[in-house]
Design a protein that fits this description.
The complex is a heterodimer.
Chain A lengths: L3 H21 L3 H26 L3 H31 L13
Helix pairs in contact in A: 1-2, 2-3
Chain B lengths: L1 H22 L3 H21 L3 H26 L11 H24 L16 H11 L1 H22 L2 H6 L6
Helix pairs in contact in B: 1-2, 2-3
The chains are: A mainly alpha, B mainly alpha.
C-alpha cells in the first residue's frame, strides 16, 4: 500500500523541476520540455486521485491533458522553427523583440 | 511492501531523470532524460492500476511527442546552451523561499497521509472498455472539441512552419 501523499509529493517534485527548468534554462527547446514535465507531474496526480477515489474520470482527464500537450508540442515546435528561421538562435535572451 | 519498493524505485528514476533534464546543457541529453521520466511515469501508472493510461503514455508521450522534439533538435542543430547570470537577489530570496515552500507542502501532504485503495499488482481496473464508455458517453462533447483542437493545431503548425516566401510567391527560384 502506497499512501496517496507519496504520489502527490512525487508529482509535486516533477512539477517543481519543470518550473525550475522553465526559469533557469536558456534554450527555448529545453524550456518547452520543462512545460511537458510540468504536465506530466499534473497527470500523475490525476491518476493517483483517480485510484484514490475509484473514479475513472480522472484517467479520462489525463487523455485530455495528453491531447492538449500534443497539440501544444506541434504548434510550439512550429513556432520554434519560425523563430529560428528569422533570428537564427535558440537562446531566449536574444529573442527580445517584445522587450521594453 | 513490494508495491512500495516498486513505487520508490520508479519514483527515484523519475526524479533522477527530471533533475538530469535540468543539469544537462545539451538539449538532446535533456530530451532523452525526459523520455526516461515518461517511461518511469508509465510504470507508476501501472502500479496505480491504470493500464490504458500507461500504454497511451508510452505511445503518445514517449513515442510521438518526444520524437517530435528530437526531430526539431536535430533539424535546428541545437548546440550547447550559453549560461547567463541570473540576478543575485533572485538567488538569495528564491532558494530559501522554494525550500520553505517545498517543506511546507510536503509536511502538509505527509501529515494527512491517507492510503490509496490498494490496487494489487496485476489487478488493473482502468480497463480500456470502461474508459471508452466514459469517454464516448459522459465526455462526448469534450472529446469532439479536442478533435477540433487537434485539427486547428495541425493547420497552425503547417502554416507556422512553412516558409513565408513559399506561401507568398509560389515555388522557389533556386529549386
Amino acid at each position: 500500500m502506497v499512501p496517496l501523499s507519496y504520489y502527490l509529493v512525487l508529482s509535486g517534485i516533477l512539477f517543481v523541476c519543470g518550473v525550475l527548468g522553465f526559469l533557469i534554462k536558456r534554450n527555448i527547446i529545453t524550456i518547452f520540455m520543462s512545460i511537458e514535465l510540468m504536465l506530466n507531474g499534473v497527470n500523475l496526480s490525476f491518476v493517483a486521485f483517480a485510484a484514490h477515489w475509484h473514479a475513472l474520470s480522472g484517467q479520462v482527464f489525463v487523455f485530455f491533458v495528453m491531447v492538449v500537450a500534443a497539440a501544444e508540442a506541434a504548434v510550439g515546435l512550429a513556432i520554434i522553427i519560425a523563430v529560428y528561421r528569422t533570428r537564427e538562435t535558440l537562446n531566449v535572451d536574444q529573442v527580445n523583440l517584445l522587450k521594453l | 511492501m513490494l508495491h512500495l519498493i516498486l513505487f520508490l524505485f520508479f519514483g527515484a528514476i523519475c526524479v533522477a531523470g527530471a533533475v538530469n533534464l535540468l543539469v544537462q546543457s545539451h538539449p538532446i541529453n535533456s530530451a532523452l532524460s525526459l523520455v526516461v521520466v515518461m517511461a518511469s511515469l508509465a510504470a507508476e501508472y501501472l502500479l496505480l492500476g491504470a493500464e490504458f493510461v500507461a500504454a497511451v503514455q508510452v505511445i503518445v508521450y514517449a513515442g510521438a511527442i518526444m520524437v517530435l522534439f528530437l526531430i526539431t533538435i536535430m533539424l535546428l542543430n541545437a548546440g550547447k546552451e550559453e549560461r547567463t547570470k541570473g540576478s543575485r537577489v533572485a538567488t538569495l530570496l528564491g532558494v530559501p523561499g522554494v525550500t520553505i515552500g517545498a517543506v511546507l507542502v510536503a509536511w502538509t501532504l505527509l501529515g494527512r497521509s491517507s492510503t490509496t485503495r490498494s490496487v494489487s499488482i496485476g489487478a488493473l481496473w482502468g480497463a480500456p472498455k470502461d474508459i471508452a464508455r466514459l469517454l464516448f458517453h459522459d465526455f462526448l462533447l469534450p472529446f469532439e472539441i479536442t478533435s477540433v483542437l487537434i485539427l486547428i493545431a495541425i493547420m497552425g503548425a503547417v502554416v507556422l512552419a512553412s516558409k513565408p516566401e513559399a506561401v507568398a510567391r509560389g515555388p522557389r527560384k533556386d529549386a
